[in-house]
Design a protein that fits this description.
CATH class of chain A: Alpha Beta
Oligomer: heterodimer
Helix content of chain B: over 70%
Number of domains of chain B: 1
CATH architecture of chain A: 3-Layer(aba) Sandwich
Number of strands of chain B: 0
Order of helices and strands of chain B: HHHHHHHHHHHH
CATH topology of chain A: Rossmann fold
Distance between the termini of chain B: 31 Å
Order of helices and strands of chain A: EHHEEHEEHHHEHEHEEH
Strand content of chain A: 25-35%
Low-confidence stretches of chain B: none
Shape of chain A: globular
Structural class of chain B: mainly alpha
Helix content of chain A: 40-55%
Strand content of chain B: under 5%
Shape of chain B: globular
Structural class of chain A: alpha/beta
Mean pLDDT of chain B: 91
Largest sheet of chain A: 6 strands, mixed
Number of helices of chain A: 9
Number of strands of chain A: 9
Radius of gyration of chain A: 20 Å
CATH superfamily of chain A: P-loop containing nucleotide triphosphate hydrolases
Largest interface: A-B, 30 and 30 residues
Number of helices of chain B: 12
Chain lengths: 241, 253
Amino acid sequence: MIRVKFENVTKYYTLLNTGGIKHFILNFFKEYKKIKSNRFLALENISFEVKDKDVVGIIGKNGAGKSTTLGLIAGVLKPTSGRVEVNGRIAPLLELGAGFHPDLTGRENVILNGILLGMTKKEILSKLDSIIEFSELGEFIDQPIRIYSSGMMSRLGFSVAVHVDPEILLIDEVLSVGDFKFQEKSKNKIYEFKEKGKTIIFVSHDIGMVEELCDKVILIHDHKLLYQGDVKKGVELYERL
Amino acid sequence: MFFEYYKDLITELTKKDIKVRYKNSYLGYLWSLANPLFLALIFYFVFKVVTKVQMRDYTLFLISGLFVWQWINNSIMVGTNLYISNASLIKKVNFPRNFLAISLVLSEGFNFLISIPVIIGFMLYYNHYPSIKWFIYIPIALIITGIMIYSLSLMVATINLFFRDMERIIGLLMTFLFYMTPIIYPVTMIPKSYNFILYINPFAPFILMWQNIILHNTLNIKYLIVSLIYSIIFFLFSTFIFNKLKYKFAELV
């Protein structure tokens, strides 16, 4: 079964914001045309497939287009041309605790965040104890999030996201959250997902971790797909760039 | 399954909005009454005490429009920044974005609902009595007004992402429309030659509908129909532009 499929995907970002209203009105026709052409390329003609149970690493330099790829998979972005197909529930471990509200308690945020990630309230309540236990926040869970340290916040975000019970897990540089012990724990959790046969798409600059975890890499360079396939070869190519 | 999920999403987002508003403030609920009541006091002073406008129960008249206006005004003003203030969420999580607008309207509507007892208090003071018909009239008016406010909030929230000046324009426009709506003066005082204002101001029929319910215990069919038409038009229009532009949100916030 194919979990994620990119077919000739090209993504441009449109740049808005011109030189202000006076400039815009005086040069209306010229500016109007410029809006249409004022864009920059993020991904060019990319095609790949991720099958069920694949663990794929996406590597590449800063600004190559890795996060755009994840955004397209997560469905927050839409390709300019080409087709993106995704089958299965996604848990995005992109920015942990996105949407947490500082004035709500940890517990209240878990419920809200869980729902935003696609769970029903019933589902969250049944997992609530396990989420809280995993986050190791103890009695802090009933305190407002604004008193949390950034590590505690990420721990809570991570705990919610891994409890979504996804078919596809998107991970973007988030395994370095929390202290050493929690990092170990979160890595173990990822391996647990791998053993369970989940599809994992992993973006990281931590090449060691990519080599360790992934069975396949996708190398994106200069907005194009440079290589896909064997991890060793991909990493070698990447290091020579 | 889907129904349950959407229901949970709406309830939790709305609950969050309500909770967040009252946390960290000692007076809580009283604050949502303070604004319209203070406005009523100001206009009472200006029009009744200073300029001595001839009108019976002027205070009650003010109250009958100001609370609804606050629901409309707050939703639209908060609405302009709705997506910008939820940027991290928009960028990372794919959930139906219009639900943020729904929860905004519901939480502001909740504020309006809990202010109805205060309106009734004023009515009793002026020897007006709510009628049993309210149980039919108020839900109808709530739904139509709610759809209108949802549509407008969604519209300004969407447009503001592409055109940030919208926020300022809306701020000015809402002040302008407040005075163009018969809230602080009765509709009968508008000179005939200016009556067209009532027809081009989309908020006028809504306010008039609510005033009629509160002051006369009647649901004016003409205002009801005009309100309904406005809310349908704006609903279709805002849904159209929202659906057209929603995939660009994550790039722009």
